[in-house]
Design a protein that fits this description.
Radius of gyration: 18 Å
Number of strands: 0
Strand content: under 5%
CATH superfamily: CDP-alcohol phosphotransferase transmembrane (TM) domain
Distance between the termini: 31 Å
Structural class: mainly alpha
Number of helices: 7
Order of helices and strands: HHHHHHH
Length: 208
Amino acid sequence: MPKAEPARRPIASRDAGWAKAFAARLAASSVTPNQISGVSVLFAAAGCALIGLVQNPAGWLGAALCVQLRLVCNLLDGMVAIEGGKKSSVGALWNEFPDRVADTLLLVPVGYAAGLGWAGWAAALLAALTAYVRVFGGSLGLAQDFSGIMAKQRRMALLTAALVAQAIEWTFSQTRWSLLVAILLIAAGSAVTCVTRTLAVVRELEGR
């Protein structure tokens, strides 16, 4: 059994049969975990283009699919690296940097599509800060904290739901309330997550 990774996000779907089977096939191939991480950015870029340029039900549903495919890549890269024994010396960089790029690609265009460009940028910045606080805690020798009301999986779940809801909303009224509410909730929730994670780091440091 692979050694537990203290800086690894707990994901329930890691134990799913399809995930194990797919990861095993990738591990047996020439595909590397870093390449899978790179593909996650390509899916995010496709979602960005669909949100920013198409802006109709087909585009929003396609973007929702891209969000989920990005998450599948995020799941499989770690499984191929750890369970598949293909961990590399630069894997930690590939585990973090593509995620920050993907978050920005998916959140910023939602703000513009909703008519509040600043909200998309705020959501992207605050999403990056949640990761910064987590990694900074790890740099201090603490276990990385993946908790919070707007951790990555929850951000992406809300974004996916909002894109699907927007596609439905558009068939009845050409408004964009689904995207507007979602981007504001992601920004606010990410801010709260930054605070709660920071307070957790403070408590652990004071308890040493």
